[in-house]
Design a protein that fits this description.
Elements: H1 2-17, E1 30-38, E2 54-56, E3 65-70, E4 76-83, E5 91-96, H2 97-103, E6 110-117
Parallel strand pairs: 1-5, 2-4
Antiparallel strand pairs: 1-6, 2-5, 3-4, 3-6
């Protein structure tokens, strides 16, 4: 009877010693495509307002910060995703008017960009 009890306890110790690895941080992702810009005063899909350096993306979670780099001139800015869009084929992000100024794309309205999550 004692030997059964000892085996049961040792199995319990083995299972209690197993630890779960901590979650790894999300790796930065990047995409290339076209960006456009917008301005306005209304509410965004997140319930916030269009800010100086905010942007719309189809699927990134609200609050995600991304670096947007204009591939035509090398200028970059950091924006926070707080809206959904763009809804035009081939475009991957809509940036706010202020971010468009940082990127030097206001004159053309659309620019080739690379976006990378922080």
């Amino acid at each position: 009877m004692k030997s059964i009890l000892i085996k049961t306890l040792s199995v319990g110790i083995v299972f209690s010693a197993v630890s779960i690895a901590p979650e790894t941080e999300a790796k930065a992702q990047s995409w290339s495509g076209k960006a456009s810009y917008y301005s306005g005063r209304g509410r965004t899909a997140s319930g916030g307002r269009i800010g100086v350096r905010t942007a719309a993306h189809r699927s990134l979670p609200f609050g995600t910060r991304v670096v947007v780099t204009n591939l035509s001139n090398g200028r970059s800015t950091v924006v926070t995703i707080n809206d959904r869009g763009p809804f035009v084929r081939g475009r991957i992000i809509d940036v706010s008017h202020g971010a468009a100024g940082d990127l030097g794309m206001r004159g053309r309205g659309v620019a080739p960009v690379r976006i990378s999550t922080l």
